[in-house]
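Follow-up to my earlier ticket, as requested here are the two runs.
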Amino acid sequence: MASLELLVLAARRGSLSRAAAECGLSQPSASARIRQLERQLGLRLLERGPSGSRPSPAGRLVVEWAGNVLEAMAGLRQAAAALRSEAQTHLRVAASYTVAEYLLPGWLAAFHRLRPDVAVSVDVVNSAQVGERARARQIDLGFVECHDAPAGLRAEVVATDELVVVVAPDHPWARRRRPLEAAALGQAELVAREPGSGTRDSFEAALRAAVASDDVAGLHPSIELGSTSAIKAAVADGMGPAVLSRLAVAAELASGAMVEVEVRGVDLSRRLRAVWAGGAYPPEPTASLLRSLGGS
């Protein structure tokens, strides 16, 4: 591209030496570039004489074509610069439901105070879909609540959470005096999220670890619903127990609308992660958001 620019400038100035001076090149370097371009094209481009350099007949055509190429390249550079500017001022985020509803608003409010110049768009999907979008580079940063980090992505723990077993106040489990054993929880018919949900994935992994078996009824819920709100409504209507984030049911537990059932023998704590595709650390402004959450 630099050789084409030199050729066009030499044709305009009528002198390769003057074109070289404008480009900050020595005469020998400029001559070498033109000779290399001539070899690449297999054409004589400049005719040199005592009064300067002028394009050959073939060179005049190449100069005309080169002008079109250089103009197109300038447009491409401008478009790329606009894309870079857009990437630096617009952050695409996807978050799982629990993170999106109970944590992300506060995180983004704090981030906005640090970087008010950055606009953020958020998609709310389940953890599996967050991973898919991150791998496809449809988002800059994702937040998941599944047991393991999605394959093929970088991940950083940004928060911890705890799952709890909840029932309606009139459910028999609400009157239990002893903790519920992991095996009994595994045999229960639960109201649960759909496959791909981070809450369901975390619960299934914890239950499998506790009972050392995949053959438990808790992994085959009696009903599957696509949102935490729908599950809470189902629990309140007496459709059965559910396992949800403590973040999601804090208000209901405080008001007595739901009752937490103590469980023994299963670890229901979990880690919430930010995920992204690419290098060990994401570029700006994604990195600023991640740092604001305490990521390394």
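Run two:
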Amino acid sequence: MASTGLISSTDFTGIVAFISGILSFFSPCILPLVPSYLIFISGITYDDYKKLQSMKYRKIVLIHSLAFIVGFSFVFIALGVSSSALGKLLSNYQVYVMRIGGFVLIILGLYYLDVVKIPFLNREKVFHLQEKPVGLFGSFVIGVTFSLGWTPCVGPALSSILIIASTTENIWEGIYLLSLYSLGLAIPFLISALLFDQLFGLLKKYSSIVKYSMKILGVLFIVIGVLFFSSYWSLVVGKIGQLLTF
């Protein structure tokens, strides 16, 4: 029996946000550093993990990873609320917001494809913590500092989702989009925590994936940017919804 429901623009942008979060994880300045982050937030070394009590250490790494994820998700979702609130404030100028946002998305997409250079995005902006604050709260704090840094990798993708959030109709849509972006970034991080004892081997074997993640993001944001700028976004999403309706 055919379904009468269509995929809405919110559903579609939610998928984009989720995929963007996953691809952000596989960026050149996040993926190679995941083992270092896991060691830093948990206090567990690779040698410790290889010992007989690996199940005990697996639990420690996983719990601290969850606190770390809550930290960066908190900041990302707060930014989503702010972006949606600004978009709502400028709702009378929605056409211009879409066009400006589309132009910025195209530029960020070209940046990911190495077609244009944006010097300030190439500067590493990260709060270096010499010592980790104590306990799970310390892992939460590190998650917060992570979300405020690593501009070359997280910044453009996050900015792109925030631009999309600024065109939404209400604040809840902004929360929805940034929650999905955070989820996309969180899932591979949790998988890495669970596979910590195999992580170095997997990174060595599949490190070439970072070459393609940024290219995929670049193409994705250029396409969305063109649709935003040309005001064809709603029309294209509606057509896709019709094609996917059963």
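The only thing I checked on run two: The longest helix spans residues 54-89. Let me know what else you need.
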